[in-house]
User: Fold this.
Amino acid sequence: MGAVPKPPEGHFSVLYFASASSFTSKESETLPAPLPLRKLFDTLEEKYNGIRDKILNSCLVTINLNYVDVPEPDDESSQAVIKEGDEVAIIPPVSSG
Amino acid sequence: MDSVTNKAEQLREKIAQTEKELQNLRRQLNELESPIQNLDVDQGHSSTSTTKQPGEASSPKWKWPLREEEYSRYGRQLILPTVGIKGQLRLKSTAVLIVGAGGLGCPAAAYLAGAGVGTLGVVDGDIVETSNLHRQIAHSTSRVGMMKVDSLVEYCQGLNPNVTYVPHREHLTPQNAEGIVSKYDLVLDCTDHPTSRYLISDICVLLQKPLVSASALRTDGQLIVLNNPAAAQGAANGGPCYRCVFPKPPPADSVVSCGEGGVLGPVVGVMGVLQALEAIKLIAGGIGKAAGSDPKEPVAPSLLLFSATSTTPFRSLRMRSRRPNCFACSAGSTLTLKELGSGSLDYVQFCGVTTPVNVLKPEERISATEYKDILAGKSHKGLLFDVREKEHFDIASIPGAVNVPFSILQRHGRPTVGYLTPEHLSDTIPAEAPIYVVCRVGNDSQIVTRRLKEMGLDGNGERDIRDIKGGMLAWKHEVDRTLPFT
Assistant:
């Protein structure tokens, strides 16, 4: 992964680790902000068909190096929002050794 | 010839010289080791006793907590504030269990043995293979075929004979986990599969043992200290367990082993070394002494991510504390030692089972031998798609094969003909020319064959599309035994 560029205005960046990186063939990209956190998986599934079942459901997510619980997509009560300039990381478990 | 005899003569001379030197050294050692006897003999001769007690001058009573040799062996770490004499004594009185004597376990065990833990247990049921050696540094070419546990213990024994080594020549199972883990103070998860990761985490929660967990694949690694402090189930001041961080296992068919996905030696080495470091910090600092100043404050550890190819190779992520609804460590957990030991918790089932793919009818497949005959025959040879990743393809492939990596197909998600044309299906090939698909062992090739048909490439049965049963492995067995199989 090269140096992650600062996302352009109105965007946040997503970092893909391990199998998430293999699946998307990307190490990072930028997406439009703001985005309600509960919509994150939907947004990624739209871009990468099948990523929810294969990767996202078992991975952990951080925003700006802090762990976050990703709410269910229909959880209207969730106020968490990914803001402009945030760095989101998709981290699937690595189990080999 | 002359130079050979010359060389032999030189060697003989050298051996004679070295033997003389060895004799000399033995004599010196003997003299050094027998002063007490000499003194006793002297005393026997002189009836007038002196105030001096026999042997006092040469072996005074040892009054220090470590043995003399240990002060020189551990001196470099003893003078660090992180360790100190207190930390060294803690190390010496601690029993550490390493589960997995592979790429993580080898370096982790080596550094813990070197640092002078009291007891080092190693669990593994596998034997050393040649493909292990590029990363599993405690094993060696001459020990291929030996139990990994024995090889690792032999290596560590050479490094530091002061440690008590306990080999467990079996894999950790729900049935033996309690018996093995309960004898240790700290556990290192150096295994290579989700099933063992959840099992180790669960037994550590139940027995209240801190757990240093690491993993590595390709060029990525993860490290986290779990269950620290190792409080009882439901205690808010306990550290999170593996299930708190990863409550859901990844789908079984997406789990890639080092054998399939590859791994770079230093990547797994770095993670194993870091595991040893975390263990030493934990032990020297006193296990059970909470890292946070306020014991009531929930402990949020950090997960260290290592990406070897990144310009930011290390990232430290702040993790969550215990999950209030965790299956294993929450107050509402029903997990017990009895339940775990009875085997009623099926870890294999929980993590999912991969069954060999079987989506094609027998007439949609051909054997490697049949394909060899097609290649040798006069009829149109058609197209051969090799759907392994490029790196595998580059090492060895069947003559005429076109590389269409499975990952590209998978990434396109919905079937699209687009990516296959025009490079792969040139107009010069007749529409009825058959397409054959080969992969590594014959799973992906079936999925691709099925998908190509769904894409309509078979022209409603006009074109024959089949996969090669058993993939390149079958090709090696049936057709070309020289094929390097990766």
User: Anything to note?
Assistant: The first helix of chain A runs from residue 18 to 24. Chain A is about 20% helix and 30% strand. The radius of gyration of chain A is 13 Å.
